[in-house]
Specification:
Layout lengths: L2 H5 L1 E7 L7 H12 L3 E7 L4 H13 L4 E4 L4 H11 L1 E2 L1 H6 L4 E5 L2 E5 L2 H11 L8 E5 L3 H12 L3 E5 L3 H10 L7 E3 L8 E7 L16 E7 L7 H7 L4 E4 L1 H16 L6 H4 L1
Parallel strand pairs: 1-2, 1-3, 4-6, 7-8, 7-10, 8-9, 10-11, 11-12
Antiparallel strand pairs: 3-5, 5-6
Helix pairs in contact: 2-10, 6-7, 6-10
The structure holds NADPH dihydro-nicotinamide-adenine-dinucleotide phosphate.
The site of NADPH dihydro-nicotinamide-adenine-dinucleotide phosphate (NDP) has 28 residues, from helix 7 and helix 10.
């Protein structure tokens, strides 16, 4: 093996499906920025716990440095770290892991999604301190965003199609902040500083009922597709942002965890 080969660090992103993932390109750009030699590959995994466990074990036993975890494995990654390793506070409260590493000889799980979101909002000049923030959706992405938003000073209200899921989510965060939960109908005639779409409605091409919902800023976690959600707020001259910046910034935080070096995101977000 060449000297370059010996110094190379290996990374994967585990998901199913995985062909659409932009993570290899993003991490390759970070490595170029920092002059590091890495290999970052997509890893398709069967959708069951045994398959996921086998992929993670084989990767780290083979000397892998770090793995990203995407749909539908974030909760499985959380369970493995809870039972056999350690979790960051963000991963612990989110009950989901998007970044795996080995720390002190043990598997370590973090969740960088919410910190990536907050970093992207702040980078666009969207202040969160004491601001009213509506989160639409109560799935994994909403769960991962809540603690970093609270820590940035946001006052959160949750809106979800299935009210019981929003209530459960609000209860899980009660020690950090009091969060009101509502059905999506309650959105009409409401006004916020920021509305975050953490539903998968845009992904599946469905429209949310946003009649008379007003906000100074709107963020759709989805990216790469036209968003009726963002179009609604653009008509009000609100600031509108899609989730590509969140994707890049959560990746940068993973890269930092693995290499102790913070890459610049400028080349990807310019
Ligand atoms: P989940 O499947 O965990 O949750 C989906 C949520 O969307 C649920 O709250 C569900 O409501 C709601 N929902 C689905 N369809 C509709 C609809 N037609 N109308 C209203 N609500 C609906 O998905 P995730 O939380 O993992 O992902 C959500 C979005 O965030 C996706 O678009 C994903 O691509 C994006 N994302 C972006 C990231 C980034 O880096 N930019 C990172 C992670 C996610 P109910 O509870 O009633 O079923």
């Amino acid at each position: 093996m060449s000297i370059i080969g010996l110094n190379m660090q290996h990374f994967i992103v585990i998901g199913n499906p995985i062909h659409h993932s932009k993570s290899p390109e993003i991490h390759a750009a970070f490595a170029r920025d920092l002059d590091l030699c890495i290999r970052y590959q997509k890893q398709l995994c069967p959708i069951n716990q045994e398959g996921f466990y086998a992929v993670v074990s084989a990767f780290f036993a083979g000397g892998g440095t770090g793995a990203n975890v995407t749909l539908p494995f974030k909760e499985m990654a959380y369970e493995i770290c809870r039972q056999e390793g350690n979790l960051s506070q963000d991963a612990f409260v989110a009950k989901a892991v998007n970044t795996l590493a080995i720390k002190n000889g043990k598997l370590y799980g973090d969740n960088t999604d919410g910190r990536g979101l907050v970093a992207d909002l702040l980078a666009h000049g969207i202040c969160l301190q004491n601001k009213s923030v509506a989160i639409l959706g109560a799935g994994g992405a909403a769960r991962g965003a809540i603690l970093p938003l609270i820590q940035a000073g946001a006052k959160i209200s949750l809106f979800n199609r299935t009210l019981t899921k929003a209530q459960t989510l609000a209860d899980d965060f009660h020690q950090f902040s009091s969060i009101q939960s509502h059905t999506l109908d309650a959105l009409s005639h409401s006004h916020f500083d920021l509305v975050i779409n953490a539903t998968s409605a845009t992904t599946t091409g469905q429209n949310l009922d946003l009649r008379n919902c007003q906000s100074a800023a709107a963020y759709d976690m989805m990216y790469g597709k036209p968003s009726a959600f963002l179009a609604h707020f653009a008509q009000q001259d609100s600031i509108t942002l899609d989730g590509y910046g969140m994707l890049v910034r959560q990746a940068a935080l993973s890269f930092h965890l693995w290499t102790n070096k913070m890459p610049s995101v400028d080349c990807l977000l310019a």
